[in-house]
Amino acid sequence: RLSTITRRVTRRPKQRRSCSLFFAMDYLKSVVPSQLLTERGSNLVVINPGSANIRIGLAQQDTPFNIPHCIARRTAGANQVPRRNVQDQMLNSQVTTAQHVEREKAYDIIASLLKIPFLDEEVANTAFPRKMGRVDGYTPQSNRKETAFTWTNVLEKNPNSSSVLESSSGKGGINEPSDQQEGIGCKELGSSECKFREYICGEEALRISPTEPYCLRRPIRRGHFNISQHYPMQQVFEDLYAIWDWILIEKLHIPNSERNMYSAILVVPETFDNREIKEMLSIVLRDLQFSSAVVHQEGLAAVFGNGLSTACVVNMGAQVTSVICIEDGVTLPTTQMTLRFGGEDVSRCLLWTQRHHQTWPPIRTDALTKPVDLLMLNRLKESYCQIKEGELEAVSVVHSYEDGMPAGSHKTRLTALNVPPMGLFYPMLLVPDVYPPPPRSWFNDYEDMLEDTWHMDFPRRTDLSDSLYPGINGGLPMWESYQIFQTKPKKEDNIGLAEAITKSILLTGRIDLQRKLFCSIQLIGGVALTSGLISAVEERVLHAIPSNEAIDTVEVLQSRINPTFVSWKGGAILGVLDFGRDAWIHREDWIRSGIHIGSGRKYKDSYFLQAQAMCYINS
Q1: According to the UniProt record, where is the region Disordered (predicted)?
Q2: Which of 409, 408, 412, 420 is nearest to 352 (CA)?
């Protein structure tokens, strides 16, 4: 199947192929890498969307913007009860008694490995001091780790007020004030001359006071579109467009009128289904109005970002951890593993650990309904958590964020800081918050020849048009009335990180490739920055290999660049080196021949989207 996909995608006239390759070879002989990125990357926007953050920037940049992937919209009924500060907070499930028991068991297993006291073990006061480590913040951000977050100013000057018009006309131009300057101006002006901002994106959205009339939305959760009865599909698409459009204007300074001169490289996680990729392409090409776009998978892009061709890529993000093997620049889809935990779960586990040891101050910290608290926990985790033996403690300042009040400071002693990151290997310690997944019928791709639906007639709803996004009330999927055929959902294994890596590599089935992959493990994502994680992965994976396998060496390769940006950088490299651009989709073609429900039209063939990432390799 893989070879068939590759042959279909790379088919093109021989003359065109040879001319393109000769031009590329001559050009590459004389150009230096920095010149190549500057010349060919100035009009390429690389977009790497994730559940918690989006990495976006021009291909010629060294590092992208890393922005929280969320938006807070102003709500109308602010005084209604109950209020929702987070769109899907009603879907959070309470931790059950059985999960509490499993979590405590996992803690004790980890404690025995790290040689620290068990969860409820009382340490006797003896004359002998305990073996203890001290962490004072070892990350580059340590100089700002104790700085409190400030509430976002949600007001802006009303452009219709007379004083604002006079002040702007006197300046001879329109300058966008900073958030602080804007807040001072609105405090000095009367209430009639200020208004609420309609929506707020990025980190500012996470720092909005719970008393303000705003509701936070995260369009992507746990590696999929965050569709639920509380978050309709159309709102998810509108929020994705609003966030990306805001970044393009405010951060990259690319207005809508100039986007026809730019192309987009979409680096998507392996967790995305075909239909989710298609909807993203529609946002990029139709709504954001890029001239063309191409899709690459994160795993393959990560390999190119570190200059490799074969590796087992372990992508540890904020909400999802995925494992996939790459051989000679080609992904092996049967090796994919998806684990429903990530860095945010480690941060919540840090809070649980401190509360259990009674080291957390008596403040109302809620990582699920107060986004600013999760920001604080993430920063504490990045500054202090690491994997090493012995008791690990640190003295830090914890902040409390009460409704509308300035942040309060509480100096406290944090303990057992090496336990939360070990939850990656023992996921029952993390107890991820459980949301019901989107309806499985939504992911049925009725334009996919790989499903047995191509020659079938589907009953049509008379109340819906053939437009791409018909009006939806109540969050029902637009294909809910279609006949449902069983598909192969993305597998989510409830196992630890070491078992997932071992299982993924052993699924390749060839001993020579397995030995190579076990010595070419690549850790990417923000969690990969955890100190001591590399040696822990090597040790735990070696122990997880069955005794009947003739493998005795495990090695994790050091990343050449920041692991958080490896996939983004790989996408930029793939886009710059793609001279033929045969896999790129043009805006007019996508709008004319893309998704038309029930029309029987397809974009070229159904393998096109799935195999784009291999086009450059097989050119």
Answers
A1: 159-184
A2: 420
For residue 143 the two structure tokens come to 């100089």
- The answer as to whether 117 is a domain residue is yes
With CA atoms as reference, report the closest residue to 51 among 272, 318, 283, 243. 318
Helices 33-40 and 566-577 pack at an angle, to 10 degrees, of 80
39 lies in a domain?
A: no
- Per the domain annotation, does 176 fall within a domain? yes
pTM as predicted = 0.80
Q: Which of 391, 409, 429 is the C-terminal boundary of a domain?
A: 429
In the block, which residue shows the tokens 């990306």? 244
- Number of CB atoms found within 10 A of residue 477's CB: 18
Same domain, 128 and 193: no
**In the chain, how many domains are there?**
2
Q: Is residue 253 part of a domain?
A: no
Torsion of Cα atoms, 267 then 269 then 275 then 280, to 10°? -40
CA distance 583 to 586: 10
139-189 pLDDT tens trace:
444 444 578 899 999 998 887 655 444 443 344 333 333 444 444 456 554
**Token duo for residue 499:** 């078992």
Tell me how far apart the alpha carbons of residues 385 and 531 are, in angstroms, rounded to a whole number. 8
Nearest in space to 58 (alpha carbons), one of 242, 265, 234: 265
φ/ψ of 335, rounded to 5, equals -95, 5
Instruction: Give the domain-ending residue among 411, 429, 447.
Output: 429
